TrEMBL record:
Similarity comment text for this entry: Belongs to the peptidase M24A family. Methionine aminopeptidase type 1 subfamily.
Protein's UniProt name: Methionine aminopeptidase
Matches recorded under PANTHER family: METHIONINE AMINOPEPTIDASE, METHIONINE AMINOPEPTIDASE 1D, MITOCHONDRIAL
Cofactor binding: number and manner: Binds 2 divalent metal cations per subunit. Has a high-affinity and a low affinity metal-binding site. The true nature of the physiological cofactor is under debate. The enzyme is active with cobalt, zinc, manganese or divalent iron ions. Most likely, methionine aminopeptidases function as mononuclear Fe(2+)-metalloproteases under physiological conditions, and the catalytically relevant metal-binding site has been assigned to the histidine-containing high-affinity site.
Species, as recorded: Trichoplax adhaerens (Trichoplax reptans)
NCBIfam families: met_pdase_I
Record flagged with keyword Protease: yes
Binding site for substrate: 159, 257
Annotated EC: 3.4.11.18
Length: 329
């Protein structure tokens, strides 16, 4: 997932914090939102639990012999290609293998995830599974990210860091799996429902899945990239939801994130899809405002109105015939 304008945004947040004014528009700063009084009131009128970051334990070790991506030891991500890569058959084969592994890990999470376990339990499970396959969890130390998976619950829009919070009945949780395998990254995510999720939550998750599926359905050679955003925003709006503008899909290959940017909202992006391109589509569909802000950990994005969002993601390949989803069976 590519974060649009992260430097400008974090700088802006920092400046506001320094000025003691991290209160944007009509919204409240994260510290106010997480006060116990606020959460008490919130709980009384909402059918889901407001998530605030909890304790994060140290990252899992990676055993010797696992091939590492270039940033694994330093946290420094090397530049990605400048132009959109057209992959040859060998590269496509390698992409298929890494994406199939990402799919299998996500599928096993689906059966593993339960009310009462912590998101850190999910991190441990995902990490161990990926390592067992001789692969590396792509998020680990990517620009310093502290864990092997992203787990975004309820009002966390994206990039939630696994921590000590136990999952609750009625939570919705996005689990975003990325693996580095045979020199290539594969990236996929899904939002799971835990126990009794209210009707709006169920509709939100269904809409996110539908948005992803229909966006993929319109892909193919010579299709303008901007059609993806148009398709998703039309569907989301018809269902009464909005589309987050902060997080974009991305090209993917031997690099985790590269061109093209995939906008999930209406846009005037130039360019067309060509056979041999691989990229992700990963819309974040929101119950309320599409706005999110990044917490002090530098990663966790929460909705500014405390409402939920749901996200689903596939890595796709454009072929001469149409489009192939690489992260499914
Ligand atoms: Co992604």
């Amino acid at each position: 997932m590519v974060l649009q304008g992260i430097n400008r945004l974090t700088t802006c947040c920092r400046m506001l914090k320094m000025a003691g004014k991290l209160r944007i528009g009509n919204y409240y700063s994260p510290s106010m939102l997480f006060s116990s009084r606020y959460r008490q009131i919130f709980r009384s009128w909402s059918s889901f639990s407001l998530v605030q970051p909890k304790q994060v334990s140290p990252a899992q070790p990676v055993p010797q012999g696992i091939p590492l991506p270039p940033y694994a030891l330093t946290g420094v991500v090397p530049p990605s290609p400048i132009t959109i890569e057209i992959k040859n058959e060998d590269q496509i084969d390698a992409m298929k293998r890494s994406c199939q592994l990402a799919y299998r890990i996500l599928d096993s999470v689906k059966n593993y995830i339960k009310v009462g376990m912590t998101t850190e339990d999910i991190d441990q499970f995902v990490h161990d599974n990926i390592i067992q396959h001789g692969a590396y969890p792509s998020p680990l130390n990517y620009n310093g990210y502290p864990k092997s998976v992203c787990t975004s619950v309820n009002n966390v829009a994206c990039h939630g860091i696994p921590d000590s919070r136990p999952l609750e009945d009625g939570d919705i949780i996005n689990v975003d799996i990325s693996v580095y395998y045979n020199g290539y990254h594969g990236d996929t995510s899904d939002t799971f429902l835990l126990g009794n999720v209210d009707e709006t939550g169920q509709q939100l998750v269904e809409t996110a899945k539908l948005c992803l599926q229909q966006a993929i359905d319109i892909c193919g050679p010579n299709v303008p990239f901007r059609n993806i955003g148009k398709t998703i925003s039309n569907l989301a709006r018809a269902a009464g939801f909005t589309v987050n503008k902060m997080f974009l899909g991305h090209g993917i290959g031997s690099y985790f994130h590269g061109p093209p940017h995939i906008y999930h909202y209406r846009n005037w992006q130039m360019g067309h899809m060509r056979p041999g391109m691989t990229f992700t589509i990963e819309p974040v569909i929101c119950e309320g405002t599409p706005d999110a802000e990044i917490l002090e950990d530098g990663w966790t994005a929460i909705s500014t109105d405390n409402k939920r969002s749901a996200q689903c993601e596939h890595t796709v390949l454009i072929t001469s015939q149409g489009v192939e989803i690489l992260t499914r069976p």
